[in-house]
Amino acid sequence: MEDVVKIENVSITYAGDKEPVPAVRDIDLAVGRERILGLVGESGSGKSSLVGAMLSLLPASSRIDGHILIDGADLYGLTPKERRAMRGRTVATVSQDPFTALNPVVSIGRQLLEFQHRLAGSRREKLENAKKMLEQVGIADADVRMKQYPHQLSGGLRQRVAIAAALLVRPRLLIADEPTTALDATTEAEVIEIIRDMRGAVDGSIVFVTHDMGVVSRLCDDVAVMYAGELVESGPVAEVMERPRHPYTAALLACDPSRIKTTSGDLPTIPGTVPKPTDLPPGCIFSPRCPKVFARCRREAPALTAAGPSRVACHLIEEADAAA
Ligand SMILES: Nc1ncnc2c1ncn2[C@@H]1O[C@H](COP(=O)(O)OP(=O)(O)OP(=O)(O)O)[C@@H](O)[C@H]1O
Ligand SMILES: [Mg+2]
Question: In the record, which residues are listed under signal peptide (predicted)?
Fold first, then answer.
């Protein structure tokens, strides 16, 4: 399978106020062509940092080690100018808050025209493309909407416009960082549906960041589970959902509201909190919260190991292999 994105030994360190913050550590991950990868993990696990690095959107004071290859081009081997040129062309994004992507004082039509400024074609063709794309993301009265301003649109419509804007450039990689958290459940379901329908408009792959395992199972082909800045498990969605091998993945699934049938309305949560990157436990980073912890876990960090079609960083995998 051809990989559109290859992340090799990537670590991200923020300058921090008092000390360096090693927010992402040694990630190895690939996203195949025409695949949708779900990136999941609790708050603070480094999801936005990792996609920020793919988008060249991290603060200048942060340090990125390792390699991020997009279509074989090493992003951080390029000049800053070349890298910026990839954003909005090769790599496009839909963010949590579509207001950040849209300019409040410029009409939708004009903005959609501007998003295409690096593409060939006449103004008329570009306006026509914008209108078609709005229709494709389910906006019926595209002509009217093109003349309106972002504040005249509902949150769900704005997010559709943001998706249309990102897709107009036919990116090789579309990154959506929690694009539905600001929306109500019905609109969220619609936006997910649109992304699923529109996957053909991305001439490459999609990375979808979410807290929600239910969204991953509805939308994604592959999943990567991050915890406190590290990759703990990755693999095809069906496999990881059916056979979560890392206790953290199992715990996330156990907390997924769509899989739980409680009558009390109380949702289970994972006891404890994600450690800060500046205060990591020795051994396995999940060991202080892990229900299956044993002595080795507190001493030694597990390496990411192949387990069936998945990759898992847990000593239980090696112990099981040794016992077999
Ligand atoms: N500019 C920064 N300077 C210092 N630390 C930062 C900076 N940005 C993020 N961090 C830290 O890096 C870690 C990872 O943050 P990040 O935002 O990538 O996580 P996330 O998984 O996207 O979380 P969320 O689900 O809340 O969006 C956190 O501990 C965060 O406090
Ligand atoms: Mg985030």
Answer: none
CATH 3.40.50.300 fits 3-90+171-323, yes or no: yes
What is the C-alpha to C-alpha distance for residues 197 and 320, in angstroms, rounded to an integer?
Answer: 40
The Cα–Cα gap between 160 and 150 comes to 11
Give the model confidence (pLDDT) of 144-169 as tens digits: 999 999 999 988 899 899 999 999 98
Nearest CA to ligand 1 atom 31: 44
Mean pLDDT of the chain: 91
Ligand 1 site, residue 45, Cβ cutoff 6 A: yes
Residue of the nearest CA to atom 12 in ligand 1?
23
Assess whether the C-beta atom of 277 lies below 6 angstroms from ligand 1: yes
CATH 3.40.50.300 segments of the chain: 3-90+171-323
Tokens of 307: 């387990």
Smallest CA separation from ligand 1 atom 27, residue:
43
110-119 long-range contacts, CB within 8 A, separation 24+ = 111/165, 112/146, 112/161, 112/164, 112/165, 112/168, 115/88, 115/165, 115/168, 115/169, 116/168, 116/169, 118/85, 118/88, 118/89, 118/169, 119/169
* Ligand 2 centroid from CA 59, angstroms: 15
25 ligand 1 Cβ < 6 A: no
